[in-house]
Amino acid sequence: MKNKGSLFDGFNYIFLTLVGCLMVFPLLHVLAKSFSSSQAINAGKVKLIPVDWTLTNYHVILGDSSIWRAFMVSVFITVVGTLINLILTASLAYPLSRPEYSMRKVVLIFILITMIFQAPLIPNYMVIKNLHLIDSLWALIIPSAISAYNLFIMRSFFVALPSELIDSARIDGAGELRTMWSVILPLSKPAMATMGLFYAVSHWNSYSSALYFINNRALYPLQLRLREIVLSNDLGQAGNLLENVNQISPAGVQMAVIVVSVVPIIIVYPFLQKYFIKGMLIGSIKA
């Protein structure tokens, strides 16, 4: 039995290593192109290692004010949106985790229905329009204030907390808000970090909502600006440089923008990894 287990573990290691390599190769290709010259890219010489190393592509995008503006818009949406997400999700998950609160099962059923049946685009657009949120960054934050999936994970974490701690806080005279702020949230760092990472990645990568609700190009987030560059070679100020500097490749600029858009999440993840793994394990053990 031990030999079979060791063989199975070895097969898993090999399989997961191959899957990991398959996922890393496209990233290496994008990174290599972003640091390669236009001649090497146009000749198809770039695979996984940069050819004719250059920083020209990054000079182009870092000198484009529209990309910096889009970057700051994405930062605002991600930071403010994630804070609102965490506050509202925790505020709803806590009462739904307590057995003494009536109607919690009915509310959970309605929330579950929203996961199965989602409103189509046109009703969503009409709601946003009637709320006068068209061409407003709040249109990218408020409609996604609470994710039903994340709510269930956070509720599972709250259910797993010892009820004796909550009873002790109530005996000491703490109200529900004080109990949640002083007892529940300090113990919920793994769950909050997990949900925060989920929400932040969702906000950072989202472009469809901006595509539907934002017409003002000054309010475009980074992903929508990236979409313009990838689909139409709209390089903004870089397009003016292309007429005079033949070392610049549209494909290289596109890859450089992709790298810039991915780097912030890669930087944040290592700091949350410990809490992220713990939060996912706790949320998966008890529902």
From TrEMBL:
Domain ABC transmembrane type-1, first and last residues per copy: 71-272
UniProt-annotated location(s): Cell membrane
GO cellular component annotations of the record: plasma membrane
Gene Ontology terms: biological process: transmembrane transport
Transmembrane segments: 12-32, 67-94, 106-125, 137-158, 179-201, 251-272
Keywords tagged on the record: Cell membrane, Membrane, Transmembrane, Transmembrane helix, Transport
Protein topology in the membrane: Multi-pass membrane protein
PANTHER family linked to this entry: ABC TRANSPORTER PERMEASE PROTEIN MG189-RELATED-RELATED (PTHR43744), POLYGALACTURONAN_RHAMNOGALACTURONAN TRANSPORT SYSTEM PERMEASE PROTEIN YTCP (PTHR43744:SF9)
Family, similarity comment: Belongs to the binding-protein-dependent transport system permease family.
Protein's recorded name: ABC transporter permease
